[in-house]
Amino acid sequence: xxxxxxxxxxxxxxxxxxxxxxxxxxxxxxxxFASIAAVRMSRRGGTPASGESPSRQPSDQVDPALAExxxxxxxxxxxxxxxxxxxxxxxxxxxxATTEPSTTPPA
Length: 107
What we know:
This protein is mainly alpha-helical. It is built from 4 helices and no strands. The chain has 2 domains: 2-55, no CATH class; 62-89.
């Protein structure tokens, strides 16, 4: 009855299929976007508002070479000077390193 009043089909008013095609394309695009976002969230284990997941933050990534060097230093297999030299060779800032050696005698 509505189609008879306006002419054409109910889903395609006045015989022009362009609006129906545009609606289908928009709906398919939104579904594609939502599914891609859901897959990315499930892989990260986070929510969209949380930003980067903890597994991707650089502070949580441990360099195995640096970890081994720290263990050797703690066990006493590597001295402080060698430890600091190797840390800087690995490209990390040397923790607590001074630019000038201390000239004051120990008390």
